[in-house]
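Hi R.,

Here's the chain you asked about this morning:
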Amino acid sequence: MLLNLALGAFYTWSVFVLPLEKAFGWSHQQTSWVFTIAVIATVASFLLGGRMQDTRGPRPCGVIGVTLVGLGFSLASLTTSLALLYTAFGFVVRVGNAIGYSPPMPVASKWFRDRRGLAVGLTVAGYGAGSALIGPLATALIDQLG
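And the predicted structure, written out as tokens:
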């Protein structure tokens, strides 16, 4: 569940849109491409993450996923161009997110055979809770630090 809390940060994207548009003079259409790129990156990344989880186990997927998400957020924080934003947040964060998201469901399902539905439900809840917790934190930090 902790892994999914971290990965859920991806869905805080909406918190950053307006400040980025104001800071750099980008249009909403330009910033919307970030999420479009992310959706496209998701497809192949989920396939890669699922395959990796089957062949190497859940730990490498989690480590790679969280590392890429952290790297992507770090790079996105340095952005001054749409190209870097598209690459960092739209691609790197989302690839890491999809690879990291691959192991929790099957692992929870295997570990808690008698309560699979509850285990998977809690796992998914962690994903949503990540954005619920990080969104307000990010908003506060943007307000204070810009």
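Residues 116-145 form the longest helix (30 residues).

Let me know if you need anything else.
M.
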